[in-house]
Amino acid sequence: MVLVGFPALLPAQVPTPFVVAPAAAPCLNIRPRAASGATPVLACLVPGTRVDGVGVAPYWRQVRLADGRTGWAAKKYLDVDSSAAVAGPADTTTARADAWLEINVVDVGQGDGIWIHTFDDNIPGNGRYEGYNIIIDGGPDASDAQDKLLQYVQARAHPGAVIDALIITHPHDDHYPGAEGILRHFEVRDYYDPNYPKEGSRWAAFRAEVDSETIGGAPVTEHLGRANFGTPNWGSELQVQFLYAWPGSAAGLGSGNTLENNASIVFRLVYGSQSILFMGDAEGKGRSDPPDTPQYVERWLLDSLPPGSLKSTVLKIAHHGSESSSTLPFIKEVDPRFVIVSSGRKAFGGTYLPDASTLARYCAFDPAIRIYRTDQDDEAEGRTTQTDADGDDIVIRTNGVVTTVDAKADGQPIVKTSCGQ
C-alpha cells in the first residue's frame, strides 16, 4: 500500500446553508486558513448571518460569504439554517470512498496520546460522517509547554473546540496527565474511565477537573466503569465495541502496576471491512513467563469473546510493546496488518520499551506485518525522557475499504515495506 498523508480539506457533496450561532457573539471570525491565533481575519459575522458551507477540515468549516469570498470558521459556532431548503435528503447508507477516518498516534514520549477524527460530509445532523473528535489518553505531561498531545490538537483546532469523547484507559501517570490540558482548553462532551480505585492526590485532582468540566454550560457526561459505557454514537458508519475494562475485582489480574495495567479499557473500532483494536496497557503474561500461555486480560478476551471478535487490521499494541503483552494465541487471534507502538526513552529496570522479543513474535507470525513506533530512531539519536517526544507521529487513515499509515521519524516521513524494517 502506498503511504499517503491526510488532506487539509475534506470535500463536501453539496453546499450546506448555515447561520452564525448566538454563542459566537459579538461576531464570528472568518479566516483565510483553517487555523486560529495569528491568522488574519477576513470578516467578522454577527449571529444570524447566513453563509454556505462548502468544505470541511477538522474543527473548521469552509464557508462562502454573501459577497462570494470564501474563508474558514470554527465549526462549533455554525448552526444549520433550518429555514433554507436543502437539495434532497442526505444519504445515510451509501459509503464514500473519500470518507477517511483518521487516527493520530501522537509522539508524547513514554506514554499514550491518541486523537481520532471521523469524516465530516458537511451535513450536520444526519447521523453519519459527523466529524466527531475522540481523545484516548493524554500522555505524561500536564503542563501546556510540555503537553505534546495538547499542542498537536491545538495546531488543528480553535480554543474551546468540542472533544466528543475523552477516554482514559487507566490511571497510570504516562496515560492521563496530558488530558488535563485537553480539559483546560477544550469542551469535553463525554468522559470514560474504567473506574479503577486509584489512590493518591494526583489522580484525585484530575478526577476533580473532570467533575468540574462543562460543555455549553452543562456538565460533562461521565461514564465510569464498563457497565456505564453504553454504545457511543460516533456516526452510523462506525461500530464502537468496548470489549473489556476493570471488572471490579482483582482476581486473576495480578497486583500493583500489573493490576492497574489490567484495569485498562480495551475497545475496537470497526469501519467497513477495516478495524482498529486499542489495548491500553492490558497485559497477557508476566515478563518472565513463556509467550504461549495467555494470562490476565489477553486470557479473558480469548476465553470470553466469540471467535473473530479480536481480528483487526490495526493493533495499537498493549503496554508500549512490553514483554508482558502479545502472547502467541493473542497475536494469532488479532492477526493484524499494522502494529502501532506508542513508547519513548524511559528505562524500566534498565529495559526500554518496546521489547525486541515482543516485536519479534509479530514478525515471526507474519513477516508482512508493518510495525510503526513513536520512538522511531530515538535510541540512535540519543534521545532521553526530556527529548524523546520529537515528532515521531503516526497517522492511520481508513475509508472502510483500505487502510494506510503515514509515519514520521524526527518529523520526517518514513516508509516501511515489511516487518522489523
List keywords for this structure.
421 residues; alpha+beta; SH3 type barrels; 7 helices; 26 strands; globular
Structure commentary:
This protein is an alpha+beta fold. The protein folds into 2 domains: 10-80, Roll (SH3 type barrels); 101-414, Metallo-beta-lactamase, Chain A, CATH 3.60.15.10. Helices cover 14% and strands 29% of the residues. The protein is built from 7 helices and 26 strands. The strands form 6 sheets. A 9-stranded mixed β-sheet has the order 15-12-11-10-9-8-24-25-26, with helices on one face. A hairpin with a 5-residue loop joins β5 and β6 (70-74). The longest helix is centred in the middle third of the chain and has 12 residues, at 201-212. The chain is globular and about 70 Å long. Residues 1-12 have low confidence and may be disordered.
Task: Give the % helix.
Answer: 10-25%
CATH superfamily grouping of the largest domain: Ribonuclease Z/Hydroxyacylglutathione hydrolase-like
Compute the gyration radius: what is it? 22 Å
Name the poorly predicted regions. 1-12
Number of domains: 2
Q: Count every beta strand, where a strand is a DSSP E run of 2 or more residues.
A: 26
